[in-house]
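BUG: 3D viewer hangs when loading the predicted structure for this chain

Environment: internal workstation, default settings.
Expected: structure renders.
Actual: progress bar stalls at 90%.

Input used:
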Amino acid sequence: MLDTLYIDDVAQADALLKPKRVEILRRLAEPTTCTAIGGELGETPQAIYYHVKRLQAAGLVTLVDERRVRGIAEGIYQAVARSFWVSPDCVGRLGPERTREAMLGLGYLLNLTEEMSRDLAQLAMGNVVLPSFGIAGDVTLAPEDGAAFVAELQRAFGEVLTKYGGGEGHTFRLALACYPRTS
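Structure tokens produced before the viewer hung:
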């Protein structure tokens, strides 16, 4: 089972993004049958089977075993991944492209998070052997300190990029985001 499946195909996303199918996928985190899921959800095995077959056709569920129950073959299914990320590319860009030059705008951060989501999900689908890490924290700034804070952060980040950028070896993506908390 994959840790993450990155979905960038509209047909796959369409098969996934139905409330009943999401609920069925949650129950398929471990191998189980349509009969067992139907019992948990108060649905007939046939109704669950219909959704499982649609998920299977989309490559989101796999048949892991079969067993005979009263002379009938009953499938045992499992989700192909522990989590599913749907790419923003499934919808596509609506309107003009966000510019990279506007580094102080939320549009740039949205571009950055879309790129990071795609990169991280693709890494999670493979066998990552190189280290990666994340760091996050909150700062509280008085209004008069905002510009100085941004300038200092840009300087320090630029120094790290200058010191370690352009050398030989493995390339790592380093991203820094600063945005106001809403909660």
